[in-house]
Amino acid sequence: MNPPSHLSLSASRFALLLAAMVAIMPFSTDIYLSAVPEMAKSLNANIHMVEKSLASFMFGVAIGQLMGGAISDIKGRKIMAMIGLGVYLLATLGLLFVQTAEQLLFFRWIQAIGGGMMTVTVGAVVRDFFQGREAAKMFATIGIITLGAPLAAPMLGAMLQSLGNWRIIFVFLTLYALVVIVLVWYFLPRSQIQKQPLDWRIFKTIGHNFVMVFSQREALGFMFFQIASFSSMFVFLTESTFIYRNLYGLNAHQYAWAFGANIITMMLFNRITAYRLRTTAPQNILISGIVIQLISNVLLVMLVWSMQQLPFALLLVLIMFSVGSQGLIGSNTQACFMGYFHKVSGSANAVLGTTQFLVAALAGWLTTELHNGTAHVMPSMMLAATCCGVVLLWLFSRQAWQK
């Protein structure tokens, strides 16, 4: 994969830079999961209150992506990324000093707004410099690199926690944000866009751009399935600490390894995606990911509801395939969706990111509200999300396979 002539970085270094930006999200969501019971005890809060900080984070990401993507179409990707990183850094510093669960939810929300403003620019930057199959390859390459973060995050979190307490985790996030700020400042190229003054006319432009995105009916099916598939995974993220640590008795390090098994599967499928993209269209690769996720979630529901307690090994394998199928889904749905937009790629990516994180946050919040102390809620919510995605993909985008 060769970079466009006007891109100063090599394609691999460009992907590495963008992956470092995207990795802020999995680090922010996954690094503290193994520490949730200890955080709840330290803050004198119910464990499910601390679990809601994950949903709070996703709500913030949705807001940040909505603002960041739209404004980046007008003011530029690089400046938006720097502003987002600044907000993220300040909120992360605040998290070092929280004393209550309510303060945790608030600062996680602010942290996520900054992170969302920054990461939404990544998809737009790829769309600015790459098109079609090359864009899908770039998304897949970024995905392969970025998957190292969720693989390492729970293990790193457990290690950092063992050095002192859970607050050290946020010290690490502060230092990582500082490194990314330096990298973005020095190495992120400026996209060639028509900048506009920051005044009331921006709202008219933003509204027009969003209307353009939602008018592309065929693109919406890919967006809807991406949202549903991500929500299925987020339900697992929300309940994983309770299922693995409380119901099955895993300690923090065992939890990290069990969580990492999902990421290894995702990396494998992502690698398969990158290989198949040499000869196969993204929408055709997407079908295999849909089948794997649907079958895995159906089996999870059937077995969890029919058995008193599913053997952990079988539960782990089914979740590995369900979550791991994101390696066949994420980059391909994003490439298919973004392929319909050129002039408003920032707004398109904002719509995709905002709706994805907003719906996932709602799914995660609903999962905590439906929590009944059993393993039944998680697989049921995961299957419901996937089924909704399949139906919406067929209703809106089935014509994409007829071309």
Task: Walk me through this protein's architecture.
The structure is a single chain. This protein is an all-alpha fold. The protein has 17 helices and no strands. It is globular, with a radius of gyration of 20 Å.
Question: What would the keywords be for this entry?
Answer:
403 residues
Task: Give a summary of the structure in a few sentences.
With 403 residues, this protein is mainly alpha-helical. Helices cover 80% and strands 0% of the residues.
What summary fits the major beta sheet? none
Average per-residue pLDDT, rounded, comes to 84
Number of contiguous helices: 17
Low-confidence regions: none
- Note the run of SSEs as H and E: HHHHHHHHHHHHHHHHH
Sheet/helix structural class:
mainly alpha
Number of strands: 0
Strand content: under 5%
C-alpha Rg (nearest Å): 20 Å
Distance between the termini: 25 Å
Percent of residues in helices comes to over 70%
List the helices and strands and how they pair.
Layout: H1 11-22, H2 24-30, H3 36-42, H4 47-75, H5 77-95, H6 101-129, H7 132-146, H8 148-163, H9 167-187, H10 201-214, H11 217-247, H12 252-276, H13 282-306, H14 312-324, H15 326-338, H16 345-370, H17 377-397
